[in-house]
């Protein structure tokens, strides 16, 4: 589902116009981004929890050449899916 399809379906389900649905999606995106920048966990009801995980620096290998490559440490965003959603998909 694309962003435009998501906004259209959200507008239809909520009974609001497309501009209002677009504003809601953009506001939610901004809220999640700001919270994640602060290092906070974000709970999206019915979807799951977003949290930050630290991947430490490690050594890897270039699959083409087999040469050792240093992989730097970085933060990644993880999603723990809500149980109801996981059950619905399974």
UniProtKB/TrEMBL annotation:
Protein name in UniProt: DNA-binding protein
Keyword line: DNA condensation, DNA-binding
Gene3D superfamilies referenced in this protein's UniProt entry, alphabetically: IHF-like DNA-binding proteins
SUPFAM superfamilies given in the database record: IHF-like DNA-binding proteins
Family label: Belongs to the bacterial histone-like protein family.
């Amino acid at each position: 589902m694309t962003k435009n399809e998501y906004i259209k379906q959200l507008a239809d389900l909520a009974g609001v116009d497309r501009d209002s649905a677009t504003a809601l999606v953009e506001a939610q995106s901004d809220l999640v981004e700001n919270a994640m920048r602060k290092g906070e966990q974000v709970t999206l009801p019915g979807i799951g929890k977003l949290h930050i995980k630290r991947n430490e620096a490690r050594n890897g290998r270039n699959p083409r050449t087999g040469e050792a490559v240093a992989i730097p440490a970085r933060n990644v965003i993880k999603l723990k899916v809500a149980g109801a959603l996981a059950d619905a998909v399974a």
